[in-house]
């Protein structure tokens, strides 16, 4: 009985250490994560959920990270039966009272020109830039190379096409094979 109580107390006290939520103004950033990359990989995707709990729209404009020369917003979409990726240059709207998910196969962040491989278990510093909420510092949890969602995530995230199936220069060879 004492062991069970001790384990419960340990879990309760350690829960904040596993929290993945950040806040910028009225925007709550939930579960920021990325995948581990092989050596010499030029890019990595960044995934998270933006929950606008305010009464006015905001926009995610981009970001920065010490491990990348640039952090861009990208979108995967079907075009004539081919999955393509394009950069979103005018920012991503986060409507009032709504959540926007950045996930594999949809909207996501692209960490460009990585300075080092991302290793599973590490945390990658990232600054997100919002039009109204300003800048917010988060950390991307680095998951396994084939991860489809952050470890411990209870819901299934979108399955998407691989980054290698794009018409974007510099993204060749980034295909990730996954069993679906």
Structural class category: mainly beta
| Radius of gyration based on Cα positions | 17 Å
Round the mean pLDDT to the nearest integer and report it: 80
Run of helices and strands: HEEEEEEEEEEE
CATH superfamily of the domain at 19-143: PCu(A)C copper chaperone
| Main sheet specs | 7 strands, mixed, barrel
The total of helices stands at 1
Residue share in helix: under 10%
**CATH class term of the domain at 19-143:** Mainly Beta
Beta-strand residue percentage: 35-45%
Quick structural summary:
The protein has 180 residues and is mostly beta strands. It is built from one helix and eleven strands.
What would you say this structure looks like, in words?
Residues 1-19 form the signal peptide. InterPro entries: LpqE-like, Lxx211020-like, PCuAC_sf. Residues 153-180 have a biased composition (Basic and acidic residues). This protein has 180 residues and is mainly β. It has a domain at 19-143: PCu(A)C copper chaperone (Immunoglobulin-like, Sandwich), CATH 2.60.40.1890. 7% of the residues lie in helices and 44% in strands. It is built from one helix and eleven strands; from the N terminus they run αβββββββββββ. The chain has a seven-stranded mixed beta barrel with strand order 2-3-9-5-4-10-11. The N and C termini lie far apart (43 Å).
